[in-house]
């Protein structure tokens, strides 16, 4: 990373921290105006038949970070109906037919000009009376607004000095750093008391066999007949990202040169963010899939997947495919992939060749 790039990273980090501090301070002021409340710290599962989860955020990653909570609630409350109030615009397509999920209410996040759609979504949210509404994060102002506007018997969130929402149940955030997908699980587990299983602390996006089979066909057609081996010798990758998460093309070229020297039979397959986006290396096969579920199914047909810190990395982590996430501007401990055979790497601390060597060890372990 160049000196200018490091300076830019530092400035953006400071601005992001300032936004968080401002939001925290506003919450603190509102909490002082509202006054101290007493919260219950436990809830009997038998009292809950309908649940609303509020997460008004436009990012695919933050949407997928809710899936461990959804799975936990569905297994704890198998007959309960779970509704989701979300800001990710393609949430309905992504989470359709999710076990336990009854309805997905999508708010036009960050688009005040679409006030009509916002009000329509709010009317839908308020048309149902819920047993329990959950704000699964500790900082989200929009989540707290939705929680306050919901018609809910119980309201659950994190208790802290800047909590102003009208909660009935709350727990303090753990002192230790916690992955963004694990925090909602921690909240629910503390309030219901039902123990977590290790498998629940990972992203969850169940795909039916028909979709997985279509993903295999898409990859076969992209690579060419007879080139895909069993087990797959396709190494999927996604090189695009927004802002400071974007990794230089030169880094990717050096990585692939090093990895293919170790595994010459591997076939790189680049997944592109848009049809007109230029591939990282014109020698490699590239593919664009508009649907998030189609993209997930195609990733599931590969042997490994490597990506920048962005949406497709989180999609890959919902599959059985070992996922390698490359970080340079955010904390892997908070946002990295969660499967036991996934790997998060801070590329500011190692060379592309070293990353290739670590990937080769995972690649070799995938062999029969």
Describe the structure.
By secondary structure, the chain is α/β, with parallel strands linked by helices. It folds into two domains: about 180 residues, Rossmann fold (3-Layer(aba) Sandwich); about 160 residues, Glycogen Phosphorylase B (Rossmann fold, 3-Layer(aba) Sandwich). Helices cover about 40% and strands about 15% of the residues. The protein contains 13 helices and twelve strands. Strands 3-2-1-4-5-6 form a six-stranded parallel β-sheet, with helices on both faces. It has a six-stranded parallel β-sheet with strand order 9-8-7-10-11-12, with helices on both faces. α3 packs parallel to α7, α8 packs across α10 and α9 crosses α13. The radius of gyration is 22 Å and the shape is elongated. The protein starts with a helix and ends with a helix. The model has no long low-confidence stretch (mean pLDDT about 90).
Short description:
By secondary structure, the chain is an alpha/beta fold. It contains 13 helices and 12 strands.
| Major sheet characteristics | 6 strands, parallel
Q: Tally the structural domains.
A: 2
Measured on Cα atoms, how large is the radius of gyration? 22 Å
Distance between the termini: 38 Å
Low-confidence stretches: none
Major β-sheet strand ordering: 3-2-1-4-5-6
- Topology as H/E string? HEHHEHEHEHEEHHEHEEHEHEHEH
| Mean pLDDT rating | 89
Relative helix content:
25-40%
Spell out the key features of this protein.
368 residues; alpha/beta; Rossmann fold; six-stranded parallel β-sheet
């Amino acid at each position: 990373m160049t000196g200018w790039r490091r300076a830019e990273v530092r400035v953006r980090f400071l601005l992001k921290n300032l936004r968080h501090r401002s939001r925290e301070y506003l919450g603190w002021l509102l909490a002082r105006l509202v006054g101290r409340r007493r919260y219950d710290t436990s809830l009997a599962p038998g009292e809950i038949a309908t649940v609303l989860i509020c997460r008004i955020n436009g990012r695919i990653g933050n949407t997928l970070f809710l899936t461990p909570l959804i799975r936990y609630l569905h297994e704890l409350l198998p007959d309960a109906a779970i509704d989701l109030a979300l800001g990710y615009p393609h949430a309905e397509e992504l989470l359709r037919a999710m076990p336990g999920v009854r309805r997905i209410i999508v708010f036009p996040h960050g688009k005040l000009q679409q006030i009509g759609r916002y009000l329509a979504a709010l009317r839908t949210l308020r048309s149902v009376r819920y047993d329990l509404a959950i704000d699964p994060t500790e900082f989200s102002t929009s989540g707290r607004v939705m929680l306050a506007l919901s018609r809910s018997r119980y309201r659950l969130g994190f208790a802290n000095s800047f909590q102003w929402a009208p909660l009935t149940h709350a727990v303090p955030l753990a002192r230790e750093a916690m992955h963004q997908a694990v925090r909602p699980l921690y909240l629910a587990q503390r309030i219901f008391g039902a123990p977590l299983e290790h498998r629940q602390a990972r992203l969850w996006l169940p795909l039916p066999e028909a979709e997985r089979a279509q993903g295999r066909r898409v990859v076969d057609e992209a690579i060419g007949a007879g080139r895909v081996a069993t087990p797959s010798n396709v190494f999927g990758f996604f090189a695009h990202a927004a802002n400071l998460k974007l990794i230089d093309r030169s880094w990717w070229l050096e990585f692939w040169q090093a990895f293919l020297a170790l595994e010459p039979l591997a076939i790189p397959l680049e997944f592109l963010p848009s049809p007109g986006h230029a591939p990282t290396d014109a020698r490699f096969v590239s593919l664009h899939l508009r649907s998030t579920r189609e993209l997930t199914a195609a990733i599931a047909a590969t042997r490994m997947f490597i990506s920048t810190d962005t949406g497709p990395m989180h999609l890959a982590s919902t599959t059985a495919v070992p996922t390698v996430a490359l970080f340079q501007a955010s904390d892997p401990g908070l946002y990295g992939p969660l499967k036991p055979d996934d790997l998060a790497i801070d590329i500011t601390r190692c060379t592309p060749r070293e990353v290739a060597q670590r990937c080769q060890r995972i690649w070799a372990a995938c062999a029969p």
